[in-house]
């Protein structure tokens, strides 16, 4: 028996931020990153909608990229002071991930990050508050997933907290919130959403429910990402990309991901390559690798009138190039000597990454290493 788990309520469409007025509670803490949601007026709108519903609100600001455990614990302390019955993650992936972790420590202050990173270690939530996720970027799908990634900077380690208990109660998917995203962020996050759809579709535990969402999200990305990059004020394309991200998130939170993410996690952590960029560079060669054991890439090629996995790999490469994202890890700027020195460690860690378990083809050390090297050089690989 398999499960399909998503938020209880999903409001989607332009202007749906207003549905904050429907949330039940008396006090909300809104967790944000930097100043973008302040500067573009989104935070003020959210607080005004809450006020209309007689919900008081306080703001915890300053969540950094790759949120740290120190920030999470500060946020949990702020929650304890404010005693919210609603926690709202507003902004990009980092703000929402941090808010999820703060929520756990608010409900279970005796927890440790290491304990929570054990598989499905999170205890029953919603003893003190419900969770509302409002993304302002279109890529990670964290507004839908039971996942939060927190960094211990002292140890230099990222800890994924994975539990369906972290699946938000309410998700608001409003494309108007994305209009101020810079082009490079739109491109990288959009390609991230594409990678989620593609890897969920070919997961070794994929099923009909998630296939439909994954395939639909992929179709939306190919039809709308270029427009969203080139015409940032085109709100219809913004909403389509926001929907694509959410749909891909619904799929992968239920059937997980594959070695694109196993490998991308390592180059992101080691070399600082933006996640969507890393995924886009890796995806075509991973498609070629996996195509030996699955014909599902042919289904995806058919979305653009093609018929083979190789044609789909080329479609992904073309979309990456058209949106201005680097075509190889060397082009991104990784020094060759540093690359060579760290390649074996990258490969070992990618093999150990949990996402590798759900890849349709089981890779060897040498195969992962060969994919990495081809993606560094910018060459197509055959297996």
Explain how this protein is built.
- This protein is α/β, with parallel strands linked by helices and 383 residues long.
- It has 2 domains: 9-177, Rossmann fold (3-Layer(aba) Sandwich); 181-377, Dehydroquinate synthase-like - alpha domain (Dehydroquinate synthase-like, alpha domain, Up-down Bundle).
- It has helices spanning 36-39, 42-52, 69-82, 93-107, 113-116, 183-202, 208-230, 235-255, 259-271, 275-290, 296-301, 309-322, 329-332, 336-352, 365-377, and strands at residues 9-12, 27-31, 56-60, 86-91, 130-135, 147-152, 157-162, 170-173.
- Helix 6 (183-202) packs parallel to helix 10 and helix 9 crosses helix 14.
- The chain is globular and about 60 Å long.
- Residues 186-375 form the Fe-containing alcohol dehydrogenase-like C-terminal domain.
The overall number of domains is 2
CATH topology of the largest domain: Dehydroquinate synthase-like, alpha domain
Uncertain runs are: none
Report the strand count: 8
Strand order of the largest sheet: 1-8-5-4-2-3
Largest sheet: 6 strands, parallel
Overall average pLDDT? 95
What would you call the shape? globular
CATH architecture of the largest domain: Up-down Bundle
Share of residues in helices: 40-55%
CATH level-4 homologous superfamily of the largest domain: Dehydroquinate synthase-like - alpha domain
Rg, rounded, reads 20 Å
Structural class: alpha/beta
Strand content: 5-15%
Look at the structure and give the CATH class of the largest domain.
Mainly Alpha
InterPro entries: ADH_Fe/GldA, ADH_Fe_C, ADH_Fe_CS, Alcohol_dehydrogenase_Fe, NADPH_BDH
Organism: Desulfoluna limicola
Domain Fe-containing alcohol dehydrogenase-like C-terminal: 186-375
Protein name: NADPH-dependent butanol dehydrogenase
């Amino acid at each position: 028996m398999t499960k399909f788990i998503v938020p209880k309520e999903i409001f989607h469409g332009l202007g749906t931020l207003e549905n904050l007025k429907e949330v039940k509670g008396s006090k909300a803490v809104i967790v944000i990153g930097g100043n973008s949601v302040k500067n573009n007026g989104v935070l003020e709108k959210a607080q005004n909608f809450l006020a209309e519903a007689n919900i008081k609100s306080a703001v915890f600001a300053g969540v950094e990229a790759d949120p740290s455990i120190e920030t999470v614990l500060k946020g949990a302390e702020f929650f304890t002071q404010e005693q919210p019955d609603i926690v709202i993650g507003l902004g990009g992936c980092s703000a929402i991930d941090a808010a999820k972790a703060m929520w756990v420590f608010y409900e279970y202050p005796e927890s440790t990050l290491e304990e929570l990173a054990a598989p499905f270690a999170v205890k029953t939530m919603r003893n003190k508050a419900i969770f509302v996720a409002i993304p302002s970027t279109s890529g990670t799908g964290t507004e839908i997933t039971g996942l939060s990634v927190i960094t211990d900077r002292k140890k230099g380690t990222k800890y994924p907290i994975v539990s369906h208990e972290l699946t938000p109660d309410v998700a608001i998917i409003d494309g108007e919130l994305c209009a101020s995203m810079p082009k490079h962020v739109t491109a990288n996050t959009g390609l991230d959403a594409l990678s989620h759809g593609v890897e969920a579709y070919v997961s070794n535990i994929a099923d009909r429910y998630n296939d439909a969402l994954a395939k639909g999200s992929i179709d939306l990305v190919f039809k709308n990402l270029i427009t969203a990059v080139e015409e940032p004020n085109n709100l219809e394309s913004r909403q389509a990309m926001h929907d694509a991200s959410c749909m891909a998130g619904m799929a992968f939170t239920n059937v997980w991901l594959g070695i694109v993410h196993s490998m991308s996690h390592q180059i992101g952590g080691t070399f600082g390559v933006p996640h969507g960029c890393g995924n886009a560079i890796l995806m075509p060669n991973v498609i070629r690798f996996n195509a030996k054991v699955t014909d599902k890439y042919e289904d995806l090629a058919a979305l653009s009138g093609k018929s083979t996995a190789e044609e789909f790999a080329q479609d992904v490469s073309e979309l990456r190039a058209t949106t201005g994202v680097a075509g190889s890890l060397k082009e991104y700027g990784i020094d060759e000597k540093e690359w060579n020195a760290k390649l074996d460690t990258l490969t070992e860690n990618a093999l150990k990454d949990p996402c590798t378990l759900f890849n349709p083809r089981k890779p060897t050390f040498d195969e992962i290493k060969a994919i990495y090297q081809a993606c560094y050089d910018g060459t197509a690989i055959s297996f």
